[in-house]
Write a structure and sequence with these properties.
Elements (H helix, E strand, L loop, with lengths): L25 E8 L4 H12 L4 E7 L4 E6 L5 H11 L2 E5 L2
Antiparallel strand pairs: 1-3, 1-4, 2-3
Helix pairs in contact: 1-2
Amino acid sequence: MVENSSCCTPEASCRPGGADVQVGAVTTTYRVTGMTCGHCEGAVSAEIGELAGVSSVQADAATGLVTVTSKAPLDEESVRAAVDEAGYELVGQSA
């Protein structure tokens, strides 16, 4: 039997605990299609998390929403490229 080496827990959580709120930080929520599980959430979070200035990423496969906290507003094309690299599609910012 192969042990699951995914970064995600069985509850589809990729990071323990809640997100820390940072003073002066920008929080943006994006809609991403194609995520179906915790592994998907982890892949999207990891790619977006590599963008300069990003301090936290919370992806939710059930809703398709990805909440990103960064030092400054992010260029949407950079976020799109990161999501594409993970194998998913950025629809755009969530209203």
